Amino acid sequence: MQGEFLKGLEGVFPKSFIAIYDTKKNTQKNTQKKIEQSLFDKQPDAVEKKPESLENQPMVVENQPLAVGKQPEAVLKEVFGYDEFRLLQKDIIDNVLSGHDTIAVMPTGGGKSICYQIPALLFEGLTIVISPLIALMQDQVSALKSAGVEAVFLNSTLTTEQYSASLSKIFRGKAKIVYMSPEGLNTKSKLSLFSERNLTVSCITIDEAHCVSEWGHDFRPDYLEIANIRRLFPKAVCLALTATATKQVRVDIAKNLGMNNPVELISSFNRENIYLEVKRKRDYFFQICEFLSEHKDESGIIYCMSRKNVDDLTERLKEAGFDAVNYHAGLTDSIRAKHQELFIRDKKQIMVATVAFGMGINKPNVRFVIHCDLPKSIEQYYQEIGRAGRDSLPSHALLLYSASDTQKIKYFFTEMDESERQKAENLLSQMVHYAESRTCRRKQILQYFGERYEAEKKCDGSCCDICDAGEAILEDVTIPALKFLSCVIRTKQRYGAAYVTDVLLGSKMKRILDNEHDKLSTYGIGKGIARDAWLELASVLVDEGYLIKSGEYGVLVITKKAHDAIVNKDKIMLPLFMEEKKVDTSAILDTNPLSHLKRSRVKKAPVAQSFDASDEEAAKIAVELRSWRTKTAEENNIPPYIIFGDKTINDIAAKKPRTHSALLDVFGMGEAKADKYGTAVLRIVVENLS
Ligand SMILES: Nc1ncnc2c1ncn2[C@@H]1O[C@H](COP(=O)(O)OP(=O)(O)OP(=O)(O)O)[C@@H](O)[C@H]1O
Ligand SMILES: [Mg+2]
Ligand SMILES: [Zn+2]
Question: What is the mean pLDDT of residues 198-204?
Answer without folding.
Answer: 91
